[in-house]
Structures are given as C-alpha cells and as structure tokens.
Amino acid sequence: MTTNTAGRKILQIENAAMAFDTKQGRYWALRDIDLTIREGEFVTLIGHSGCGKSTLLNLIAGLTLPTAGLLLCDGREIGGPGPERAVVFQNHSLLPWLTCFDNVYLGVERVFGRKEGTPKLKKRTEDALALVGLTHALTKFPNELSGGMKQRVGIARALAMQPKILLMDEPFGALDALTRANLQDELMRIVAETGATTVMVTHDVDEAVLLSDRVVMLTNGPAAVIGEILEVGLPRPRQRLALAHDPVYTECRAAILEFLYHKQLKQAA
Amino acid sequence: MHAITVDDLGSVPPAATRTAPKIPTAVVANIAQAAPPPAAAGAPGQNWLRLRLWMRKVIREMAPVLLGILLLVGFWHLATLKGSSLPGPLKTWEAAEKLFADPFYRNGPNDQGIGWNVLSSLKRVAVGFGIAALVGIPAGFMIGRFKFLAGMLNPLISLLRPVSPLAWLPIGLLVFHKADPAATWTIFICSIWPMILNTAQGVQRIPQDYLNVARVLNLSEWKVFTKILFPAVLPYMLTGIRLSIGTAWLVIVAAEMLTGGVGIGFWVWDEWNNLKVEHIIIAIFVIGIVGLLLEQALILIARRFTHDNA
C-alpha cells in the first residue's frame, strides 16, 4: 500500500507512555509507543484484552493525558478531548433523553453552530443520519432502537462533526455476528465515501484484516509496546465473500493469529 | 324432517345447530366452513366474554385490597362493640357524613371546616417544601459535582439529618416570633435532607460515558448542565422530592399540634380537647389519603421522566 507514505500526517505519537497510580504503586500500561497515521488511513489496534489498546485510544482522544511522550494531531499537541477527534464509544453512549436527531445535533451545533444557521445545521444532522441509513429513525429515542442501530447513531454523531480523525473503541463488540458483519460493510462504505481517517480498537482478527490498511498489534501488558505492524495489501473496495479465499487475506489473518496466539499467549496466562 | 344425525351435530358449531336445526347436513357443513371468524359471528358473546375476563381481573386485583379494608373495619367494630371510649365505625361514618357535608365553613379563626384545615396544612407544606427545594436541589448539585464541598458538608448533614424536625421548632419560634413561619421552618428543615442527598447521589452516579461524550463534543458548561447533568439527575431528584414531601406531611401534623392556628394537625388537637374522638379518627383517614395521593402523584411524574437506558 502507498497510504503510509503519501498524505498528510494527521496523527503522530512519539515515545508515548502511560502509567496509572495504584495502591501497589505505579502501573505502566503502555510505553515506547511510536506511531504515525496519515490522512485517509484506516488503522486498527489489536491485542489481548487488558493490553492497553483502549488506553492508547483514550490518549489519542485526549480523554487521558500521557505520562510521558508526545501526541500530535495535525501538528498540534493533544491537550484534551475535542470534536476534531470524534469517538465512537463501545456502548454507544447515546443520551437516552434525546432523540437520534438531537443526539447528533448536539455535536453538530457545537462544531458548526457559530458559522452556520439552524437550517444548515439540521441539514448536516439529517445527512449524517442518512449516511448510516437511519433517515426513518430521526425522531426515535435510543431505547426504541436495536443495538446495531444505536451504534449507527453513534457513528453518525461522530462523523457529523467532520472530525480530522475518527476514533472507534470496539464499536461492534457488543453486537451479534450478523449485525456486526452488516455494520462492518456499512463502515467500509462510509469510510470510502467520506475518506475519514480512522483508528479502531478491536479484538476481532477478521474485522481488523477486512477493514484496515494497517493493523497495529500490541504486546501484552503490563507496559505494552507495539509488537508488530502489519500492512494489509488488499485492494479496495473489499468484498467479504471474495476475501474468504483470497491468499493475501488468509496470510494477513494468519500473521495476526500467529502474533496473538503464539508470540503473546504464553505471557497472557 | 330431522335429517341431521347426532354425528353431524357434533361437527357443527353449537350456535348454528341452535338456530337452524332443520337445514340438511350438506348445507350446514357449508355454513360452518363459510362462517366468518367467531369474533364477528358471535360479537355479543365475545364482548360478554371479554367483559367477564376484565371483571375477573379487577376482582382478582381488588379482592385483597377490599378484604384488607373489611378486616380493619371488622376488627375496629369488634373492638368497640362493648361500649369502649373509642367510637365504632358506624358512629364515625355518621360524623364523617356531617363533617363532609360542609367542609368549607368559617366560624372565626379557630372553627373552620375540615377542607380549610387540610388546605392550610398543604399550603404550609408547599411553602416549606418549596423553599427547601430551592435551597436543597442546587446544594445537592454542588455537593455532587465538587468533592471539596462534599467533604465539607457531608459530615454536617450526617449530624443534622437524624435530628427530629420538632427539635427545630423552638429555634423557629425564637427566630420568627410567630407560630406560622416556625411551622414552615420545621417543614423546610425536615424536607431539605432527602433532596440534597438524592440530588448529590444522582450527580455522582452519572455514567462516565455521558461525561466523556460531553468532553469529546467539548460542550459548554451550560449545555453540559441542560443536556446531560439535569436529565440524568432528574429521576434521583424526583425520588428526593417524593421522600421530602412524605416527611413534610408526617411532620406538619406534629408541628401544627404544637403551634396551633388552622391546619389538620391543630384540628386533631382541638377535637381532642373537645373530646370528639370520631373526628380524630376521620382526621387520621384524611391525613393518610392526602399523603397517599401526594406520593402517587409524584410516582407518576417520576415515571414520566425516567429513561430506560438499555
């Protein structure tokens, strides 16, 4: 792939480390993280549970600040969360007292409210929900929707803010296999349409290969580091069914499995 | 004439056999097949069945309630049978009929209808409770939001909350020099704690996810409050309000007994002095029913504002 040499550097992580203070003393979750992500790339972070992949995503989101090292988004240091790094949370995190429309509108208003009038903001909100195929559910409340639909609203909320980078924390982890496959296909279409730079945390090997340009594999904690980075050299658009027998796909899949279950499992216990 | 055999009858719906016993078998079979679904065919019968089912449901739910009330009245009747000083149910009922025939009469400040007494008690509760809500709910938000304030005020609240509200009455009398504001003050003090504590707990229990959403969207403090904090805390706040009103209604009776004036508590004391015991029993029922209605109304409101977060 050429994606990692062309395009603007949207995200630069330099020598980042994260430690938590616990009763037993300092616990180092991550160390020596160096990673550069360019415009339009789709990168997944994969590793065993508890390895610190969500911690890394939270660092990028700015929800936590690194103990050491530097994170830059589009050349500016990340000092806190902000709408240019929109997050799709694992458990959707929609506000249950707002309709789908209002949930998305909340972010849209914040980002574009100063420059644009209400009709334009509404149009943006409707477009974002149309992008995820939820035009019919504008006035519904989250508890009237299925899990997959809620996650679509979460994606719409994030994309409607036109972030520089889209962060997804195991967005499909809580969904059943069919819904998950469906949403993965949708996500590929949406990313292709919008060209969104995306970082996604997952523990699903197939999901990682199917969606990513690069798969970043983290070693087991404590003090997880980036173990390997795999380039997925599959052309886009990708078709789930065609890929099942593709030798490149199989090879990538095998490489990740090898890393996760051979090189890392012994320490995992 | 009677072409229908016993076997044939068995295969035909009973309604058809009753109305058309003389139709030949073949035709009857046709009717049976072509007959519209029973809902339309036997509409009156169907409605009758539905009514019976509904009646049965109502009876099943109401029977224990009615039995409970009946038992209470029964025991009461038995206990007062042999000329006790306590009036029986019948005597109380007769007194109640007279009392409620004219609940809103006024014969001077110390002799007013039971309606006026209940209303003035409710007014006192409303004022005391209202001021408590104005102070307690914002205080609860502050305590929930700022750890320092929680550390500062929680010990004080723990110290003052178990104190009987009536212990505050003399302080009220001393400060306000009048009975009425002193009673209101007592209501204020007793209804403020549940509101502070429940609101604070609601603020502390806001899911971290919602706050993360607020941080990622970079919402202004005002938006965080109106779109996230307030709706998330509302159900807790309403629980606090419900508990507060319940306590306030408990306390007002005692406070009015001590301060006098117009009010259901004072009225109970007055009727005791007049030795109209049946009126005291009526007052007990009235106080209970008003408290029940207040509670149910607040439960209904709370249900409206509780969001199922699935």
Q: How many strand elements of chain B?
A: 0
Helix content of chain B: over 70%
Q: Biggest interface between protein chains, with counts per chain?
A: A-B, 23 and 19 residues
What is the CATH architecture descriptor of one domain in chain B?
Answer: Orthogonal Bundle
Task: Return the structural class of chain A.
Answer: alpha/beta
Separation, N- and C-terminal Cα atoms of chain A: 36 Å
Characterize the largest beta sheet of chain A: strand count, sense, and whether it forms a barrel: 6 strands, mixed
Gyration radius over CA of chain A: 19 Å
CATH top level of one domain in chain B is Mainly Alpha
Would you identify the regions of chain B where 5 or more consecutive residues have pLDDT less than 50? Answer: 1-41
Mean pLDDT of chain B: 82
Distance between the termini of chain B: 69 Å
Helix-strand string of chain B: HHHHHHHHHHHHHH
Number of strands of chain A: 10
Quaternary status:
heterodimer
From N to C, what is the helix and strand string of chain A? EEEHEEEHHHEHEHEEHHH
- The CATH homologous superfamily of one domain in chain B is called MetI-like
What is the general shape of chain A?
globular
The whole-number mean of residue pLDDT values of chain A reads 89
Low-confidence stretches of chain A: none
